[in-house]
Amino acid sequence: MDKSCQNQDHSKCPIREMLTRLGDKWSILIIYTLSQAPAQRLRFSALLKGIQGISQRMLTTTLRNLERDGAVKRHFYPEVPPRVEYELTPLGKSLLNPVQALMVWVEANWGEISAARATFDAANAKKKDKAA
Q: Residue 91 needs a FRET pair 20 to 30 A away by CA distance; which of 56, 66, 73, 126 works?
């Protein structure tokens, strides 16, 4: 592990910083959605429609962060009206294998996860009933 990660100041840890970015609610969904685009590029409006629940502001912020990190490239076309498209960079595309591995893991283990949640929820419901 990077020596900076061993310090008390976790803000200088690149691993923590990137896990925070990729672990947010929207980054992985944006990366996955861009990877599924037929032409490997999507307009902002198509991303907004394709990612259920994301706000325009959050999409803008997350795309800027991914662009800053080098995972997404923004293409601006000075037309009337202006057109903007986004695509994954080679760095962004390199995230697809770990993302797909995580998705496969979730699918393979969803039954066990659901059962564990149900057991936990039932045990905690009984505790709440006894406390009331």
A: 56
